[in-house]
From TrEMBL:
InterPro entries tied to this protein: HAMP_dom, HATPase_C_sf, HATPase_dom, His_kinase_dom, HisK_dim/P_dom, HisK_dim/P_sf, HssS/ArlS-like, Sig_transdc_His_kin-like_C
Organism: Candidatus Ruthenibacterium merdavium
Protein's name according to its UniProt entry: histidine kinase
Membrane topology: Multi-pass membrane protein
Transmembrane among keywords: yes
Xref: SMART domains: HAMP, HATPase_c, HisKA
Residue ranges annotated for the HAMP domain, each copy included: 202-254
Histidine kinase domain boundaries: 262-480
Origin organism lineage: Bacteria, Bacillati, Bacillota, Clostridia, Eubacteriales
Length: 495
């Protein structure tokens, strides 16, 4: 069964809290035991010191044995009751000679008097000056107890030992109460932590659930789905990136749909014309005398189809990265001059003037064939939309952008509307208002220019003023520093 992130996070948090609580409880219990043990040892040793002081004072009073024993027994009993401890006084061999416990006097005399303490307890007190332990004195005590003892020295001579004991039940009771309190507080803490963990996990996973829902819609073909962006954390960053990706995919899908529609339209128009004229010739609608005229139209339409298919194949190869530019240093004016000479007849037919055609050797580092196609497409566009007796001007500048050469081709005419400038490089885009004079283009030439310039490491853009001019700019990586190159007067005077 699949577990959600909320469930796994809750389990992980609960396990961590339980483990931390258990470790904290263990440490608290251990420290409490150590503290209780140290406190008990201090209290027992204090009782031992008081008892030793009593013995020394009785010895200093020089009483007879009976009086001294009675006084000592009475003082030890008072001390034992005041401290709630058991006290045993032994001789130098560890034999109990006096004692005071909670038990009746008869039981003390019968069970403890003349009994011997363990050798390890006596030798420990003798060797180290004190003895502390927890046990039963080898079964002498009925229950586990805290034990402390010291040797008794009067006038520098060892006269015996004093041991004090206290039941360990008090510690067990203390630890039981402590453990109960700890369990109660730990349970409340775990309960509150669990609620907080569930709330926090839900808040953390809500963006992920929304992201999953949006991804599901994407999978089903709905590219309009978006993820709400809340906050500025990592999940918000993921949501922003997802929305950007969604917007890009939506644009791509829209472009794909538009692309397919434009392809169908662009292919259908010439094919309809070709079929109509051929059918007219076959069924006799078109007289034989007009065959040549209509066959020329059919040939032009077939050429249009060929160019369209070629442009589409070029775009496919370029965008798929199948073509790698062969960049090399060369003079950009060679491409400009070649493009102008190839359009010489069309320029003369429309009586278009050339301006700025003053070649200065300017080296760029680019693929000459690709750059020639870019210039040819832009110049072809300029010639189409420049009115008769209009003007086309050229400019090459290597100083505007460091390391780049800027080329511009400007033509007079109707120009491009401001709201259409950002779309002129899109596939199949045609602006009817300013480009309506021409119906033979496919709308792919400028898009190809954009791809080729980007492939060459440059940028391309357009500026226009309606009813005045249209100017295309593109940049290419610079090569050597520009130097003056002489061109023949014939080239300059050709146009």
């Amino acid at each position: 069964m699949r577990k959600s992130i909320t469930t796994r996070y809750f389990y992980a948090t609960a396990l961590l809290l339980i483990a931390s609580t258990a470790l904290m409880g263990f440490i608290q219990m251990y420290l409490s035991m150590v503290f209780f043990r140290a406190q008990s040892d201090r209290d027992l040793l204090l009782t031992v010191d008081n008892t030793i002081q009593i013995l020394q004072e009785v010895q200093a009073d020089h009483l007879n044995d009976t009086e001294a024993r009675a006084l000592t027994n009475r003082e030890i009993t008072l001390t034992a009751r005041a401290s709630d401890n058991n006290i045993f006084v032994t001789d130098v061999y560890g034999r109990i000679v006096l004692g005071s416990t909670k038990d009746p006097v008869e039981y003390i005399e019968e069970y403890y008097i003349d009994a011997y303490l363990p050798e390890k307890a006596v030798s420990g007190a003798y060797n180290h000056g004190r003895y502390t332990q927890m046990g039963t004195l080898d079964g002498l005590l009925p229950v586990r107890s805290y034990i402390a003892g010291k040797p008794v020295r009067i006038d520098g001579d060892l006269t015996g030992y004093v041991f004090a004991t206290a039941d360990a039940d008090t510690m067990a009771e203390f630890l039981a109460n402590l453990f109960s309190t700890f369990l109660l507080s730990a349970g409340l803490m775990l309960m509150v932590s669990s609620v907080i963990s569930i709330v926090m996990t839900s808040r953390l996973t809500t963006p992920l659930r929304r992201l999953a829902e949006a991804a599901g819609k994407f999978g089903s073909g709905d590219f309009s789905a978006r993820v709400p962006v809340e906050g500025d954390d990592e999940l918000a960053a993921v949501a922003i990136q997802f929305n950007n990706m969604a917007q890009s995919l939506e644009r791509t899908d829209t472009s794909r749909r538009s692309f397919m529609g434009n392809i169908a339209h662009e292919l259908r128009t010439p094919m309809t014309s070709i079929k109509g004229f051929i059918d007219g010739m076959l069924d006799g609608t078109i007289p034989q005398d007009d065959y040549r005229h209509y066959l020329e139209i059919v040939s032009n339409e077939a050429g249009r189809l060929t160019r369209l298919v070629k442009n589409m194949l070029d775009i496919t190869k370029l965008e798929a990265g199948e073509y790698q530019p062969n960049a090399a240093p060369y003079d950009i004016w060679e491409s400009l001059t070649s493009a102008v000479f190839s359009a010489e007849q069309r320029l003369k037919e429309k009586k278009i003037r050339l301006a700025g055609f003053a070649p200065v050797r300017t080296i760029v580092n680019a693929d000459q064939d690709l750059v020639h196609q870019v210039i040819y497409n832009i110049l072809d566009n300029a010639i189409k939309f420049t009115p008769s007796e209009g003007e086309i001007s050229f400019s090459v500048d290597s100083m505007k952008t460091k390391g780049m050469v800027t080329v511009s081709i400007r033509n007079t005419g109707k120009g491009i509307a401001p709201d259409s400038l950002e779309y002129v490089f899109d596939r199949f885009y045609k602006e009817d208002k300013s480009r309506g004079l021409n119906t033979t283009g496919s709308g792919l030439g400028l898009h190809i220019c954009k791809v080729l310039i980007q492939l060459s490491g440059g940028q391309i853009w357009v500026e226009s003023e309606e009813d005045e001019y249209c100017e295309f700019f593109f940049t290419l990586p610079a090569g050597e520093k520009p130097e003056r190159k002489k061109y023949s007067k014939e080239i300059r005077a050709s146009f």
